[in-house]
Design goal:
Length: 328
Amino acid sequence: MVRVSPRVVVLAGGVGGSKFVLGVREALRRRGMDDTAAALTVVVNTGDDIWLSGVRLQPDVDSITYALAGVNDTARGWGRDGDSERVNHELQEWGAGWPWFTLGDLDLGTHLARTGWLRDGLSPTQVLERMSQRWPLGARLLPMTDAEVDTVVVLEDGSRLHFQEWWTRHRAALAPARFENPGIEVAAPAPGVVEAIASADVVLIAPSNPVVSIGPVLAVPVIRDVVATTAAPVVGISPIIGGKVVRGMADVCLTAIGVETSAAAVAAHYGSRETGGVLDAWLLAEEDDALAPEVAGGGIRSLVTPLWMTDAAASAAIAETALVAAGV
């Protein structure tokens, strides 16, 4: 019997992840679910976290939190709406921080609160739970792990940069040889992550960067295994439309790991659960309709649907298609 209130778990990160999570919440609300927080769990990438100017930043966590709270800057795609940058300018006058990495004043308030709680002994999971109490998010947010497993970009010349410097300062223009998350091989899933995935009615992989947003989540020991073995259908949404990335520089990341920038290649990268991968079904954009047989040939059921998340209604329609594809 299909549950009236399906338990949905989304693996997500970045702007694409935040837009998709908003769509999932709206899709559940349109099904008549008032208390979506009881049904929707989001496992958030923390691989792009960083210590900067003495505070702990969690860009993907904050992007998704702000989006669900309705306080995000939709024009820039990150940070708080209507934020100012007085403190950031003052930091630059002191020669502190990174002049090309902007911290808004309201955003910095979040980082200061988080850092204080961490230094008081709270875990990142407990911090995120406390953050979630400020606004009615309509979802339970969990970090992928409580361990610090920041992403390091190893360039072709062997030099190493924190992901944020490579992504924000250099705009991914420096050729990467590989991406590493030091310590991730011994990191544990955050409390509640494994249980949420194992007991879900559907697991959705958001149209986030497959390499640096979803990749770290699946690289945490046990998480990939539980996604691969959960009784719930696993449905992914392509972040590639018409052979191009929707936002950001995911194509550079894919090239670095030897994956073509195509919807079918990313599906193959995740792989079919029948052959040791993590997908049962894959949503393709209408522009990539011709790739459906290739995806199906890899043992992954393909569904063609509009994938441009132009507004809340479009994102909700995509999410509803994914839920229907999972049979919930």
